[in-house]
Amino acid sequence: MVVWLALIVWLGLVTWALSVVRAAAVADAPAPPPERAPSGRVPYAGRRRATAVTQGVLLIGVLAAAAYLSGENQWEPLPLVGLIALLVLGSDILVLDAKRFRIGGSFTGLVLAMALLGPAPAAFLGLASALVDALRRKVRGTYLLNNLLTYTTFPLVGGIVLHAVHEESMEGGYAIAVFTVFLVANLLNFLMIAGHTRILRGGSLLEMFRGVFVPVLPWEIASAVMTAMAVYGFEALGPWIIGLFALALGVYQLLLRALLEGQAHSEEIERRTNQLDVRHEGMLGLLLETLALRDPSAARHAAAVAHYAHQLARAAGLSEREQAVVHTAGLLHDLGKEALPDHILIGRSELHPAELRLIKRHPADGARLLLRVEGMGEVAAAVLAHHERIDGKGYPDGLAGDSIPMTARILAVAEVYDVLTSPDSYRIQMPAHEAEDELRNVAGSQLDGRLVWLFATQVLRGRHSDHLEHIADLEAELQVQRAVRGALDGPFVLGPPMR
User: Fold this and answer.
1) pLDDT tens, residue by residue, 61-108
2) Model-level pTM greater than 0.85?
3) Based on C-alpha coordinates, what's the Rg of the chain?
4) What is the CATH number of domain 295-489?
5) First-last CA distance in the chain
């Protein structure tokens, strides 16, 4: 009779949990527009009332069943009852917060109460635990009812099941039953608590399952093993094993707290990093679009140089950080031109010496602006030197050979190629094969000869045609920039030397 009663109650519990999950799934759907709700009515008020009534009725039924099943033999010996009660209520001091979900050691103590005392003490201890938690956290309304219902139902039903199994189990089989009941009850406990939260607050129950339940599942399995071992030890060695288990549980809770706090810290860092990446990308786009308002070719040129330079840096075997520096510098290499007068920036006529001196200032002006941004030191160095020449006749500092940063030498190759092949540059547009020949002509004097060879053989990949495929999609390069942005936060490691 007891076995059949346990199965019926357990089936009812599963049905309730599944109904909660289904309701939560409905809550995940988009809410109707606010104007459809009658004026003056609280959203989901009917759902809250129905939930509260259902919870109240079920709670009364569970408490009545616990009182009916209670017997003197379940409350003996008193020292064991007191120890388990202390474990259940005292472990809530080490409550763990995981996003919107709280994990406490009381659940483990309740499983011990199910296994060693019986269904009635386990249910009433669960009720006491929920009430103490409600007083500490000031839980009210349907959340309080749901907690009371959850923490009385699982202990009652789990106690009934374990009591029925204990009478027929062989040696060691009862510990396996405790392990199984622990995991199943833990899952259903999560579904009732989390499902109720999602019904009233909306959101995705699946996301909460992945973000809260799955990360701590290995720890819950370990806790289930510990609980099963404690029950087995109690039957084999005596009550003192429960005291040892309580000590081990305290250590376990501290370790689990450290795990969840570390996970929350990592998620917060990732969230803030993503926000910074989005802002960084937005600022880059804003700067380039500002330049493009004055010179429509500026955004296209920046995207093309960034693309070619990134490809060349990869072909040269540079580290991910150096590739990120090169790509960022490619987008911002002409930032200093913002200070140029319109007739110099946009004009295509021959410039006077004074105007040429102004143009030769743009690498230094751009680098000075970039140095104001934290983490842009290497980018500023590349921008500053991207017009230096291998023979030392470049500007602004007249650097030569290996004194020029590798990132700047890569930018120089990419920029010269785009200027030669673009229809909107100040030069007459060249076909691809002629532009490649021109690069080879200035290799070793203006440009790094090794980089020119890599660019021609690995980046261009034999594009010898009169129609050049221009790589100039600013939006695509901003997406690439967002992907490589994280590499700028790591240590700067130089790639293999180029000779």
Assistant:
1) 999 999 998 888 888 888 888 888 887 887 666 565 555 445 556 788
2) no
3) 35
4) 1.10.3210.10
5) 88
